Amino acid sequence: MSLRFGVVGTGAIGREHIDRITNKLSGGKVVAVTDVNQDSALQTVEQYNLDAVIYPDDVALIADNNVDVVVVTSWGPAHEATVLAAVEAGKYVFCEKPLATTADGCMRIVEAEMKQGKKLVQVGFMRRYDSGYVQLKEAIDQGEIGQPLMVRAVHRNPEVGENYVTEMAVVDTLIHEIDALHWLVNDDYKSVQVVFPRKTKYAHDKVQDPQLFMIETNSGIVMNVEVFVNCKYGYDIQCEVIGEDGVAYLPEFPSVVTRKNGKLSSGILQDWKYRFMDAYDVEIQDFIDSIGKKGEPQGPTSWDGYIAAVTADACVKAQKTGEKEAIRLQEKPVFYSKDTVCETV
Amino acid sequence: MSLRFGVVGTGAIGREHIDRITNKLSGGKVVAVTDVNQDSALQTVEQYNLDAVIYPDDVALIADNNVDVVVVTSWGPAHEATVLAAVEAGKYVFCEKPLATTADGCMRIVEAEMKQGKKLVQVGFMRRYDSGYVQLKEAIDQGEIGQPLMVRAVHRNPEVGENYVTEMAVVDTLIHEIDALHWLVNDDYKSVQVVFPRKTKYAHDKVQDPQLFMIETNSGIVMNVEVFVNCKYGYDIQCEVIGEDGVAYLPEFPSVVTRKNGKLSSGILQDWKYRFMDAYDVEIQDFIDSIGKKGEPQGPTSWDGYIAAVTADACVKAQKTGEKEAIRLQEKPVFYSKDTVCETV
Amino acid sequence: MSLRFGVVGTGAIGREHIDRITNKLSGGKVVAVTDVNQDSALQTVEQYNLDAVIYPDDVALIADNNVDVVVVTSWGPAHEATVLAAVEAGKYVFCEKPLATTADGCMRIVEAEMKQGKKLVQVGFMRRYDSGYVQLKEAIDQGEIGQPLMVRAVHRNPEVGENYVTEMAVVDTLIHEIDALHWLVNDDYKSVQVVFPRKTKYAHDKVQDPQLFMIETNSGIVMNVEVFVNCKYGYDIQCEVIGEDGVAYLPEFPSVVTRKNGKLSSGILQDWKYRFMDAYDVEIQDFIDSIGKKGEPQGPTSWDGYIAAVTADACVKAQKTGEKEAIRLQEKPVFYSKDTVCETV
Amino acid sequence: MSLRFGVVGTGAIGREHIDRITNKLSGGKVVAVTDVNQDSALQTVEQYNLDAVIYPDDVALIADNNVDVVVVTSWGPAHEATVLAAVEAGKYVFCEKPLATTADGCMRIVEAEMKQGKKLVQVGFMRRYDSGYVQLKEAIDQGEIGQPLMVRAVHRNPEVGENYVTEMAVVDTLIHEIDALHWLVNDDYKSVQVVFPRKTKYAHDKVQDPQLFMIETNSGIVMNVEVFVNCKYGYDIQCEVIGEDGVAYLPEFPSVVTRKNGKLSSGILQDWKYRFMDAYDVEIQDFIDSIGKKGEPQGPTSWDGYIAAVTADACVKAQKTGEKEAIRLQEKPVFYSKDTVCETV
Ligand SMILES: [Mg+2]
Ligand SMILES: [Mg+2]
Ligand SMILES: [Mg+2]
Ligand SMILES: [Mg+2]
């Protein structure tokens, strides 16, 4: 009765998903694992005391009839091939971002999935499962602030390592806003322009930091999104939607408030891991429950993975040109037309 | 490998626990149920599609060798007998409040448990598992505000029914603060005085509302606790600890903030069910995990149940006399001396 | 056309009033000063470059036909005699607290004033002119929260000197709440009880700190007022009124908000002088304008001074007895029956 | 000893300044007035019971030897001529915005003032005297948030009339941010780009609303300023400065907080008049005091008026072209090089 998971990629995020499926959530179990590093796969099975087969590669794992769902947590460039193979085998897929490293790769998955006649794939954009975002979307969808006109979003990290270069502000950081914001306002992106403000002295040589992305949607909503990955003070995700009748804000992450040393303060997270901890749990539980109850996942689709890829490409181009760059999506297939709604509260 | 639960009492709270054990949490399953209303037990098994035996009564359920844990969610006056029987059978017990309706009853359970030589019982005081309370306790325990001197707590409901009488302010409402506050400041209660402010016009004839409880601890901390169950505006739990070096507050329940119609606002819950929803999940998962990993539950003990009963008795007496009433606890057995700590964040 | 002030007492507060009358406000000028320390009087005239006569004592100053208003900023025990003399001479009086050091003394002033047939005296309770209190009173008076049932007030100082003893928590500190709270809810006090929580380690030997005052009004409103004068973290005045339909709070003193070093913070004042700076200005300007436009001051009256004295006496007694002490006011003369309303916004 | 004011223009803002000089502040008096509508001038003298000469025009008023200061509160197109005449006569000038309607006009005033050898003119940009802005600037100048990198500002009105057209978003609304923001970060503007988001349904045909201005400074600070004049919900001024070490926010306008009807709320002003009421008072008092103590005003200079004019021109051009437009200021004369600092707290 439990959904049987095969996990491709037993690095940090892979192990976290294994842990939550095994020890925190209901209705799933891990029955197979693989990793390009077989030692890692072996250690993982031992660490979580799994009753799971260790496969030499994704192809073998996918071929296991006991595997209902393939979790793709390998490194990004490997995603496309694994997802395609799993979809072609008719298996459900939970794929961490990116769905594929290119828009064309995403489109190949979209087409493979449509060929199977039902939704099989969910992409790991967990923000849609964060209780704050869910509340914010609800407020918008219920007309609390009227038609959205502008969005302001902020994605700040205290600092990043030497290997974090300018493009990663899009591919690793902004990518979460890219998925969340079009979902939030039920619209599609049209163009993006990037501006580089004065660079913080805390940024390494190879990264422009902060960066400002101005994204326009088809209906004319203007989104100003700040990425600032050496902001020093904490991990801070903000989102504010300005509508015709009012403004709605993503709640601050809850924290004890103190009066101390001349300050009335609440804490700001330092470590991004805590910010969406609950969202990850809700995300995977919803994935399990939706397959169980409706036969298909209800979360971010392959099409959402495609949107993210096309948009990210335009954002990277805009980083380079300094010009307003078009975001050109193919027409949305009817197959994906029913917006998947996260009903979780 | 799963912990096998037998549930005594399939009313609302019993079914909720069954639902979370079955569909939301990991490591437990419901294998037996009973209820004085056998139809209710039967319906529950069907509703949740349980593979569970329906027993005619608690004695039969406890006798089932497949039952590892007895969940006591029957009506209050029945708790003591069921808990005692389960403890004497060496079974784990998760008992919703009250542990017993009298202090003597609680003491009988305490003694029975000590005779078994290990902690078997956890009382369902879920606030200790609320992330806000956990953060607040952490701040206090880490010395953020120095030695606590005063506490101010507020327990407000929008309204209550005709059957809610003055005593219930203690037994049904304040009881949660009674458990949470001594845990929060690591102290024991010494006395209580009750004051009735001007009564709200929204209260029924038979209930004094609001009520103010002034509770003193052994070390001299003074706690002012307001119970106001017809406050109209929402369900609102506040807690503030004033220490030698600062003040710490329980976080507000997170909510979207809006600017609209001349107001900068966040929402206040109307329904108490949402306030501690997550805490219930964490509570039961911790109960399962603690038994699995440490062989005994780590949450509120029988002794905490006894403290609650003695304190509630004094509060009810103080409602009647208007005087300062002593809260006289027996000496704490060494058996319970290691404070159980909720390590969950 | 300017109101001509004679100032009795040229200490710190006296000089501040001279400064604001001379350099900040409109419609008044200082024409006479006196002080038991004549050097101080002389220095003051020089410091503010006043065109003012220096008198040997209050009697001589009051006798000056050029003096319209006597400002009483001498030390407390001297207030009564100066105020009485000024009132008997038909002069307006602005008297810093206390109006007199005894309730009987206040009553003598009340009677002298009534004999003059019009209000001459205003007592320096400046909180009624603080924009936050004014807003709070407006909200209450307009029925925003319905009938008040409870009040919670907090008066915290970072620290006090060795000379601050237990009684001063009433006479110097609580006295401001005593005036403000009955005005806020339009009610009279009935009784008071004092509780001493665990004492902070930061308090000197001779002072009990913190202290909790529980004051009841005639209509049954219960006010919990905390005085905590070694709270370390700042100067903090809080006031919260709980009504039948909602709760209203005194606004926090406005401050820049920052996100920095893992904290979202706003500042708390360290120095009480800044908290009511504007209120002092508004207070004296209103005093000048009211005399100009209506022929009598509109602020706190001699009767309010009497209420403060009687209430403070009961609070000091309650500090000593630990019992609930009655607050027994004489019947309010019709002369004072029209509540003076601060219309300033 | 009082500074003697002659007021040119007795409309609403002129009368307000007359009222504050006469009835609220210290050290000034109105001795002369004029208006193109002589009835208005006459009514004003009567309304405020002024002992003032009514002149037929500004030239005659300026010629009066009793006039020390000329207040220019006529309509905008008349400002330049009056200011020039007053400066050439060696009189102090307090001129409401705009200093002149063209950059060239402002430059003529700058040159005339330099010829007089001392600062005579202050422009009525009152935000620099708002306690919130003063606190914010202090935090920045003291290095609280390190070097500023980005600014986000919001200027929202509930609604505007039919006569409010697109350009007025710059000339009447943004103009206050134009002055305040360069002062706040001690920098000069370099370019501006304007984006029009989806238009609110509440805006009239002739106005684009909202508008987003992206302004860059010489040092690379990027300022995103939103003007939204039909936001419906209130009058709302926000300003947030993002620096290398943290973020600082302009305080919200203080308001009573309530818990009521399921909302925790504070009020947002509806009427802009209340937002900077105190700032106007502080502004004029500082103008009077600075002339008295230092012989010249300390507030916004003619050069600030010139900066505002040049920047506004570029913003209006950018509204039309949709392109990034340069903001080209002449080199700052040494005469204005000492930044005037508002020391008022
Ligand atoms: Mg993810
Ligand atoms: Mg419970
Ligand atoms: Mg005073
Ligand atoms: Mg102005």
Textual characterization of the structure:
The structure is a homotetramer of 345-residue chains. Chain A is of the alpha/beta class and 345 residues long. Chain A folds into two domains: 3-123, 3-Layer(aba) Sandwich (Rossmann fold); 138-272, 2-Layer Sandwich (Dihydrodipicolinate Reductase, domain 2), CATH 3.30.360. Helices cover 36% and strands 23% of the residues of chain A. The first copy, chain A, contains ten helices and 15 strands. Chain A has helices spanning 12-23, 38-47, 58-63, 79-88, 103-116, 131-141, 168-185, 272-275, 277-294, 302-321, and strands spanning 3-8, 28-34, 53-55, 69-72, 92-95, 121-123, 148-156, 189-195, 211-217, 222-228, 236-243, 247-249, 257-260, 263-267, 325-326. Chain A has a seven-stranded mixed sheet with strand order 12-11-7-10-9-8-15, with helices on one face. In chain A, strand 1 (3-8), helix 1 (12-23) and strand 2 (28-34) form a beta-alpha-beta unit. In chain A, helix 4 runs parallel beside helix 5. Chain A is globular and about 55 Å long. Mean pLDDT of chain A is 96; it is low at 340-345. Chains A and B meet through helix 6, strand 12, strand 13 and helix 9 of A and helix 6, strand 12, strand 13 and helix 9 of B. Strand 13 of chain C pairs antiparallel with strand 12 (247-249) of chain D. The complex binds magnesium ion (4 copies). Chains A, B, C, D: Pathway: Polyol metabolism; myo-inositol degradation into acetyl-CoA; acetyl-CoA from myo-inositol: step 1/7. Chains A, B, C, D: One of its GO terms (molecular function) is inositol 2-dehydrogenase (NAD+) activity. Chains A, B, C, D: This is Inositol 2-dehydrogenase/D-chiro-inositol 3-dehydrogenase.
